[in-house]
Amino acid sequence: MKAVRIHAHGGLDVLRYEEVERPRLTSPTDAIVQLKTAALNRIDLWNRQGLTGLDIALPHILGADGAGIVVETGEEVHNVKPGDPVCLYPPSGCGRCEFCSTDREFLCINLRVPGERLQGTYAEYVKIPAGNCFPVPAGLSFEEAAAFPLVFLTVWRMLVTNAELKPGEHVLILGIGGGVATAALQLAKQMGAHVVVTSSSDEKLEMAKSWGADHGINYLKSDFTKEVRALTAKRGVDVVVDSVGGESWVKSLAALAKGGRLVTCGATAGANPPTDIRRIFWNHLKIFGSTLGSRGEFRQLLSFMQVNGVRPIVDQVFPLQETAAAQCRLEEGKQFGKVVLQIAD
Question: In 10 A of CB 289, how many CB atoms?
Fold first, then answer.
């Protein structure tokens, strides 16, 4: 089969489109999926660069998100059969620890995710636990089915499980354009929230408004904390989605109303920002960290998407052999939504 692998960590030049042995079933609970599409995530860039701290056996296939057709299943698999179109729930755990036994395997210390400890989805076929295969929501293309699982699941846990977002609340989303931020915009609007977004790009702010954002703030031109206070009659917002960190962190906390919640899943601008702890306890703020989510939350998300007709925003589709160009677009922050790889027709 064809796949894109890395044989060493480094820049875009380490991505190799090459012939690779097709995966074979080694467990009675596994499935082989012929992938139609795969989607890029920022973690793919960090895995390529060797920045995650994980010991990845090389050569290695990157990619956590994908969608396709089941072609083979182990003898103990009953939830899917050959011919089923599926999207992939990314994480799987050891199956034995306190987290795995309580449907929280995304917290497992031995967590396995395609593209990290497992061979990934930048390939024509992938082997994955059959329990991680879920039906593609009705009406979604394979491009959309690959684009939503990792980021939408993470955002669902942030906004629904942790922040307990309610209709009518105000949400501030930093750095609109990336997969997490655009997913947060879509879910928050579907839940009846009033959404403010930030970006350094006026073009992205206008695109966000076309997708339902109520206000857009260019943080290069004005202080978004002051703008948020002005928009909310000095009250502040109920929820901030901050996967940026860095200098924005202090401003994010300052933009929250009393009793507000900050949810985070990343620190692309810096992981060690200053924090005034007094602001947190004086204003009764809550801070939640999230990555991924449970199978139960994934099922909730699928049902929500089915009922509300939510479709992920697909920025651009590249053929598998142009993976380097696709990662370059993501690396340079040019995208609005998800960058997707086309693997098969």
Answer: 11
Nearest Cα neighbor of 176 from 146, 213, 150 is 213
Antiparallel, parallel or unpaired: β 60-61 and 2-6: antiparallel
| Residue 54 pLDDT | 85
| CA distance linking residue 306 with residue 303, whole number of Å | 5
CATH architecture of the domain with range 2-148+312-342: Alpha-Beta Complex (3.90)
Query: CA-CA distances (angstroms) from residue 121 to 37, 58, 88, 110, 342?
Result: 8, 15, 10, 20, 11
Per-residue confidence (pLDDT) for residue 344, from 0 to 100: 84
Question: Is 128 within 8 Å of 73 (Cβ atoms)?
Answer: no
CATH numeric code, 152-289 = 3.40.50.720
Q: Is 325 exposed, middle or buried (0-12, 13-18, 19+ CB in 10 A)?
A: middle
pTM over 0.90: yes
Q: How far is CA 299 from the centre of its chain?
A: 16
* Distance separating alpha carbons of residues 40 and 23, to the nearest angstrom: 21
